[in-house]
Design goal:
Blueprint (H helix, E strand, L loop, with lengths): L2 E6 L10 E7 L5 E9 L6 E4 L2 E6 L4 E8 L2 E9 L5 E7 L2 E6 L5 E6 L5 E8 L15 E8 L2 E6 L4 E8 L2 E9 L6 E6 L5 E5 L4 E8 L2 E9 L8 E7 L4 E7 L3 E7 L6 E8 L5 E7 L2 E6 L4 E7 L5 E3 L4 E2 L3 E6 L1
Antiparallel strand pairs: 1-2, 1-29, 2-3, 4-5, 5-6, 6-7, 8-9, 9-10, 10-11, 12-13, 13-14, 14-15, 16-17, 17-18, 18-19, 20-21, 21-22, 22-23, 24-25, 25-26, 26-27, 26-28
Length: 328
């Protein structure tokens, strides 16, 4: 049996979540909603470390830390994120990297020796825009630590992946890779092969990158199967058998692709309904795929077969404006 932390959007973000809740796996693999364990406004993204859980406060531009005691959480820190609408957190040594969507920059928040959020130590401003109506300026959306010395970040508004060197808890922007105008890079993930996968929200496509010295190089790009006009692609996750999953908000589907063993080639496989509305986050656990359907207030669970296609295992579980699911 697996326990989960569930984050979501609260009233300050037009949602119904009151904070962080627990979910528990049932015998069939679907999830059961448990109690609210920490009241907090819009903890829309979560990340954990030994003894602590961290959450953005997307509506107020802050980051919270919670001390973990088995199934309980106790808030022990609150700090400014360095911008507006923080939507993603990445742990580095002694710090959190925060992607601030509305203002487009990255904040670096220091952690004290106990793991509590301390002070905002650095802000790396964003710049740029794109042709899509939602690309009116820089919109940092996610970051990824690819090795001890390198952090990448995606800017949905500027159509860029930025490269940063890491020294302790200090980031230095050293380079970038531009995408076709209107791509809207939203999510970034490290494939088991070591290649880097980037999801284009507005273009509804998936890109494979590789390291090229201190820079990055595009290997291939593939349109997401099932995409429809006006869709917004959401999050990447990797499943068994080389399958790759991405959500399509709008048409409410899960797009399925298959990567070659070396990760360099992508084959479109198909798409299925997400069994809800506005799939924001999805996560693979063993042969199960869990999908947070934000606007239908539900979490749907699918079993993944040898063909990679998700099959719903039970009726979706009611959950308040779910946006992020993290194993506890």
């Amino acid at each position: 049996m697996t326990d989960w932390w569930l984050g979501g959007f609260g009233p300050d973000q037009d949602g119904t979540a009151r904070g962080i809740s627990r979910m528990t796996s049932r015998a069939d693999g679907s999830l059961e909603l448990g109690p609210l364990v920490a009241g907090a406004p819009s903890p829309a993204y979560l990340v954990s470390a030994p003894g602590h859980l961290y959450a953005v406060a997307e509506g107020s531009g802050r980051v919270r830390s919670f001390r973990r005691d088995e199934d309980a959480l106790a808030e022990d820190g609150l700090v400014e994120s360095g911008g507006e609408s923080p939507c993603h957190l990445t742990l580095i040594d002694g710090a959190l990297v925060v992607a601030n969507y509305m203002t487009g920059g990255l904040g670096v928040v220091l952690l004290d020796d106990a793991g509590t959020v301390g002070s905002l130590a650095q802000v790396i401003p964003g710049a740029g825009s794109g042709p899509h109506r939602a690309q009116d300026g820089p919109h940092a959306h996610a970051s990824l630590r690819v090795d001890a010395a390198t952090v990448l970040s995606v800017d949905l508004g500027a159509d860029r992946v930025f490269i940063h060197s890491v020294s302790g808890a200090v980031l230095t922007r050293t380079g970038e890779l531009a995408f076709p105008p209107g791509t809207g890079p939203r999510d970034i993930a490290l494939h088991p092969s070591g290649l880097i996968y980037v999801l284009g929200e507005h273009a509804q496509d998936l890109h494979v990158l590789e390291r090229d010295g201190l820079g990055l190089r595009l290997v291939t790009s593939v349109a997401l199967p099932g995409r429809a006009s006006g869709d917004q692609a959401a999050a990447i996750c990797f499943g068994p058998g080389g399958f790759v999953y991405a959500a399509l908000r709008g048409s409410s589907q899960i797009s399925v692709l298959r990567a070659s063993v070396d990760g360099r080639e992508l084959e479109p496989v198909g798409a299925v309904s997400c069994e809800g509305d506005w799939p924001r986050h999805s996560v693979v656990h063993g042969d199960l795929l869990h999908v947070c359907n934000q606007l239908s207030n539900s979490v749907a669970t699918f079993r993944l077969g040898a063909d990679g296609m998700p099959v719903l295992v039970a009726d979706p579980t009611p959950a308040p404006s779910p946006s992020f699911l993290l194993p506890a």
